[in-house]
Amino acid sequence: MKKTELIAAVAQKAEISRKDAEKAVAAVLDTIVENVANGEEIRIVGFGTFERHERSERTGVNPQTKEKITIPASKVPVFKAGKAFKDAVDK
Fold it and tell me: Which residues, given as ranges, of the chain have pLDDT below 50?
């Protein structure tokens, strides 16, 4: 499902206009991105948790040259599915 299909599905389920659904979906996604980028955790009970993890610096290997390289530390977004979400997918 692409973003436009998600917006159409939200509009249909919520019985709102496509334009209002687009604003709502954009607002939710923007809020999640902003808060996770600031190091906050977003927990939606029954759905899951969005959070930021920090990866430490590590050594890797360039597959073409077999040369060892240093991969710098970074921050990455992580999503952990909630129990209700996992159970719905497992049915």
Answer: none
- b/e string for 61-79 if b means 16 or more Cβ within 10 A? eeeeeeeeeeeeeeeeeee
Alpha helices in 1-91 (DSSP H): 3-14, 18-37, 83-90
pLDDT given for residue 85 in this prediction? 95
Question: How is residue 29 written in tokens?
Answer: 């996604």
Question: How many domains is the chain built from?
Answer: 1
For residue 58, what are the contacts with CB-CB under 8 A and spacing of at least 6?
70, 71
Task: Note the pLDDT of residue 5.
Answer: 96
What is the predicted pLDDT for the residue at 91? 87
Strands 74-81 and 68-71 turn out to be: unpaired
Q: Any idea what the CATH number is for the domain that residue 85 is in? A: 4.10.520.10
Beta strand pairing call for 42-44 and 48-55:
antiparallel
Q: How many residues does the chain have?
A: 91
